[in-house]
Recover the amino acids of this structure.
């Protein structure tokens, strides 16, 4: 059976790290069988130069995109620069022929210029949202998620989310065990689902209220087994319920209930991977009242059961 052909579009003034993310995820791992036919396709003629002094040469160009199963745009120079029509036409034609088109971080700009994001949900770095909305019509950006696939178009947020997005593709093509194998071999964290918030430190007013809230969050993280509610937490840092809710959303990007769920599930991943505790005991230790509730939330979040996660992790670690 032929390997999936993954074509990565490279340009002059490329950013080496952004280009290396899909290369690292889809490239052949040492001492292992290849799973992908990885090709770097030059968007411009001649050797390509990065703004850090790295140069690359490749035998593939835009004409070779037609042979792809997946095309990845890992980077673009600026949202203000419209790509050449040859590239845009190649992407549109490829999508019409069933090729999965992927835009990572600034690479989403290229998909927008090609018209491939019109009337589709898309993810992008939260700082690009206002400029995207101004420049492109009929685009539905969701800047608070890591990556989204919609009708053969896959987009991701910043550089870290690009790693998650690429691991998502590995899972899609080869399953959870292979995705975990690659993340372990590359010493990457376990994958994050696309619908997670972009938990980044947005610029906020560092008043005494925000400082008290951040200290409270750290305290909660140390003991997730307690029952926490808005009224009691707001009282602890001398806020009313409405003010606390507003500041909490501004600081974390989500609600108290969702944040607690995320923290508990994340803590459980470490226990599944690094302890011999039973599933029932882990559920109790991270604050779930019943193991059945833990299993249900875990399956919803990761599309896999806690037991399967543990088994896959151990297989991939061998």
């Amino acid at each position: 059976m032929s390997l999936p052909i993954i074509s990565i579009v490279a340009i002059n003034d490329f950013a080496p790290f952004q280009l290396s993310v899909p290369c690292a995820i889809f490239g052949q791992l040492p001492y292992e069988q290849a799973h992908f036919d990885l090709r770097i396709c030059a968007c411009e003629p001649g050797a390509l130069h990065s703004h850090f002094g790295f140069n690359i040469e490749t035998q593939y160009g835009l004409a070779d995109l037609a042979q792809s199963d997946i095309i990845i745009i890992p980077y673009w120079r600026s949202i203000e620069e419209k790509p050449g029509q040859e590239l845009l036409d190649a992407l549109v034609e490829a999508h019409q022929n069933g090729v999965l088109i992927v835009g990572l971080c600034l690479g989403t700009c290229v998909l927008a210029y090609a018209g491939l994001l019109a009337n589709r949900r898309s993810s992008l770095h939260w700082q690009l949202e206002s400029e995207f909305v101004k420049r492109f019509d009929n685009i539905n950006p969701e800047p608070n998620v890591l990556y989204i696939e919609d009708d053969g178009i896959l987009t991701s947020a910043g550089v870290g989310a690009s790693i998650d997005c690429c691991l998502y593709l590995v899972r899609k093509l080869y399953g959870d065990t292979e995705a975990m194998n690659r993340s372990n071999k590359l010493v990457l964290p376990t994958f994050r689902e696309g619908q997670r918030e972009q938990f980044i430190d947005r610029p906020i007013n560092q008043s005494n209220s925000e400082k008290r809230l951040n200290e409270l969050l750290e305290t909660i993280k140390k003991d997730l087994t307690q029952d926490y509610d808005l009224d009691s937490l707001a009282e602890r840092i001398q806020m009313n319920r409405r003010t606390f809710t507003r500041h909490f959303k501004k600081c974390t990007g989500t609600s108290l209930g969702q944040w607690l769920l995320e923290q508990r599930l994340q803590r459980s991943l470490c226990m599944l991977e690094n302890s011999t505790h039973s599933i029932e005991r882990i559920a109790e230790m991270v604050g779930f009242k019943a193991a059945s509730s833990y299993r249900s939330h875990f399956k919803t979040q990761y599309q896999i059961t806690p037991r399967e996660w543990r088994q896959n992790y151990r297989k991939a670690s061998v």
Summary: Residues 5-185 form a domain with the Rossmann fold fold (CATH 3.40.50.880). The radius of gyration is 22 Å.
